[in-house]
Fold this protein.
Amino acid sequence: MNTFLLVGYKKQFGCEPTVAVLGMKGARLGEPYEQVTSKKGKNQLVVSVGGRDFRPSITKLNKYSNGFEFVSVAGADLIRALSDNNRTLAARIGNTTLIEFSSANGFASANQRASINCD
């Protein structure tokens, strides 16, 4: 399974950044079949940057025939933390680590390009 950490901006969501972990088998995401919204602990997406945990108030789980997507609003503190190079980064649900990097670089420039959607 391929797993990705994504940050995106959409005008329809008020240009607030969202963070998502997408996992899928194959090159294309399959058909969606369920969406679950969680406001409590074990089903929340937690992004850890440099040892600091960022916990959103709401996480949405989108299930697909060949994968999943956990998505939530990314606060300004998380965006700033991701912009610092050479930080360890992990995203997890409960005790399950979904993705982990020992050093994450290049986020600031990628984030700047992504935020153009809201200009």
Remarks:
- The chain has two helices and nine strands.
- The mean pLDDT is 87.
